[in-house]
Specification:
The chain is mostly beta strands and 410 residues long. It has 3 helices and 28 strands.
Length: 410
């Protein structure tokens, strides 16, 4: 075994010669709620104790456990740190002298600190920046080990789910749901439990189109002004976490705020809804444009920003048809309904991911669409008479889960 110092000299000869900085895979992107999964055994790295019993303190061990129980991680542009979701004061730390079989832990985050700065290599490994050690899944779990070409113990995948505003060709803004696997693995999306809404007056869950097991949720367990809003698994009405995913919504065809039940926190699209914008909850203000949503009439069950010309954001309470894939990419399930002249439904497959895939458009006759249980073209509440709904599931694995409180129900 070569000495560590010698390894530094030969690093360019390894496949690490052309690293891709985690923060630079998409410089405008903050990856939140990422699960980091080992290729070797399918386990995910987690703060010891998982989502239910983790202790967030300097020195707490990082271990390998089933992904359904694992805490998640955030990758922030500019630092290369891998931070604990919901506890961004703590970062993945390899210690002051990372060596083979070295343990991992969390520690107070110091951006730029060598043992906390990581990059993603061209062959799907996560390595310490400027060093020779990679995340490695050994027989006893996660560790650091010399980066070695072809070592499948070091091949990882991370997964997240986003809820973002994206443009279409008419420059409207659509809230869309997308599962993203950044490293090229395409297994099925695990399905969680489905829970009924509470009795009248107790709030309603808002689901991605066709996924009643997933809910629109304010993150962090105890929502407050500025809490991010994304998608998690749904929780039972008796679970305290369900309070973050039960909403008071306008009646069908009506306009108004979408409010977390029994709070003064409303769904907010920000001062200038635009490409890549996220959602949050904020103090409710009557009539504020970014908090004023119009709910579709009839069976459309969509929500769109009201009074924002040509900038509508939409999501769904499902009247779900089954999702569908494509012959070329069965892992994708993407549907965007557009103008329906002459009885034709246009399905946009693979839209919304700038790299490394590009959108392709398939025109499906209405007869075929009906056989796929897709809705017919129909009139809507939109002034231009277009029916639009986007559901995007991409290269999927594990949905967005908050590390502290949001875990997949068993």
């Amino acid at each position: 075994m070569l000495a560590l110092a010698a390894l530094v000299a030969i690093l360019p000869a390894l496949t690490l010669a052309k690293p891709v900085d985690l923060a630079q895979r998409n410089p405008s992107k903050r990856y939140t709620g990422v699960l980091i999964k080992a290729n070797r055994d399918g386990l995910c790295i987690s703060v010891n104790g998982g989502t239910q019993k983790a202790v967030y303190a300097d020195g707490t061990a990082v271990v390998s456990i089933p992904c359904s129980q694992a805490t998640t991680w955030d990758i922030n542009p500019g630092s290369g740190s891998v931070l604990v979701s919901g506890h961004n004061g703590f970062a993945l730390d390899a210690g002051t002298n990372p060596t083979n079989n070295g343990p991992l832990k969390i520690w107070t985050s110091y951006p730029g600190l060598m043992q906390q700065t990581w990059y993603y290599t061209g062959d799907d490994r996560i390595a310490i920046t400027g060093g020779t050690q990679c995340l490695d899944e050994g027989p006893n779990g996660i560790q650091t080990y010399q980066c070695t070409t072809g070592n499948t113990n070091q091949t990882r995948a991370h997964y997240h789910l986003e809820l973002r505003l994206l443009p279409n060709r008419d420059l409207d803004q659509f809230l869309f749901l997308r599962f993203v696997d950044s490293f090229g693995v395409t297994p099925n999306i695990p399905t969680g439990k489905v829970y009924p809404d509470p009795p009248v007056g107790g709030g309603q869950r808002l689901h991605p189109y066709g996924r009643d097991d997933l809910c629109l949720s304010a993150l962090g367990g105890a929502p407050q002004v500025g809490s991010e809003v994304e998608i998690t698994y749904c929780f039972d009405n008796n679970d305290p976490n369900s309070k973050a995913q039960l909403w008071d919504v306008p009646a069908k065809g009506a306009t108004g705020p979408v409010r977390i039940i029994n709070t003064d926190l409303c769904l907010d699209a920000g001062n200038n809804p635009g490409n890549g914008s996220g959602l949050k909850v904020w103090t409710c203000y009557d009539g504020l444009i970014q908090q004023t949503w119009k709910r579709g009439a009839g069976n459309s069950n969509t929500f769109g920003l009201s009074n924002v010309p040509r900038r509508r954001a939409r999501f769904h309470r499902p009247e779900p048809p089954p999702l569908f894939g494509t012959r070329e990419r069965p892992d994708l399930a993407v549907l965007e309904q557009r103008r329906c002249p002459a009885g034709v439904l246009h399905a946009i497959v693979g839209a919304g991911h700038p790299e490394p895939y590009h959108a392709t458009t398939t025109t499906i006759p209405i007869t075929t669409a009906r056989s796929l249980a897709l809705p017919r073209c129909a009139s809507t509440d939109m002034s231009d008479g277009e029916e639009r709904a986007r559901t995007t599931l991409r290269r999927s694995k594990i949905p967005r889960i908050d590390a502290r409180t949001m875990t997949r129900p068993h």
